[in-house]
Design a protein that fits this description.
This protein is mainly α. It has one domain: Tetracycline Repressor, domain 2 (Orthogonal Bundle). Helix content is 76%, strand content 0%. The protein has ten helices and no strands. Helix 1 crosses helix 2 and helix 4 packs parallel to helix 7. The longest helix has 27 residues. It is elongated, with a radius of gyration of 18 Å. The N and C termini lie far apart (55 Å).
Amino acid sequence: MDTAADTRQRLVDTARNLIAASSYHAVGVQEICGQAGVQKGSFYHFFDSKRELALAAVDDMAEYFSRSIFEHAFSADIAPLARIERFFTAVYNYHQQVKDTTGHVQGCPFGNLAGELGSVDSGMRDKIDTLFRLAETAIDQTLQDAVEQGDLPRMDTHAAARAIFAYAEGLILYAKTRNDATLIRDLGKRAIQLAIEAG
C-alpha cells in the first residue's frame, strides 16, 4: 500500500515528465492526477497549486542532476580539463537517453521553465538562477584546478565558467531544435577553447 510519501513522489515524478514533454502551461492538475493515479482531492493535500508542485519538481530534478551528472562529472578522480569533457559527455548521454525513450530531445528542463516563466514568475526564475549559479561554481572550481596544475593559462575562471555553462545551455537548445543530441557531444569538445578565449 502506498504511503503518503509515495503518493507525493508520484505526483512530483509525473509533473516532471509531463512538463518536460510539453510545457508548464500545457499541463493541468487534472492531467497530472490522471497520469499519477491520484485523486484530485489528494493532490491538494500535498500541494496548494500546480505552481507549488512545479517548484517541488524543480527541486527533485536538481537533486537528480546533481547526483547523476555534476557529482560524477566534476569528481577529482581525473584531470580538470577531462572533467569538463566528461560533463558534456554526461549531458549528451542524458539527452540521448531521453530521445531514445521519447523520440525527442526535450531540452534542459530548467532552461525550458526559465524561458517559459522567467518573465512572469520571479520565484521560479530565482530558483533556477540559483541552480545555474551552482553549476557555474562547479565549473569555476574545475578551471581553477586546471590553472593551478598548469593545464590552462592564468585567467578569470569565473568569467570562463559562466561562458562554458552558457555554451552548454545553448548547445542543449540547439540540440532540441535539431532533435539531435550528438550536437552536445560533438560541439562540447570546443568548450575548453571557449574557456581560454573567455578567460
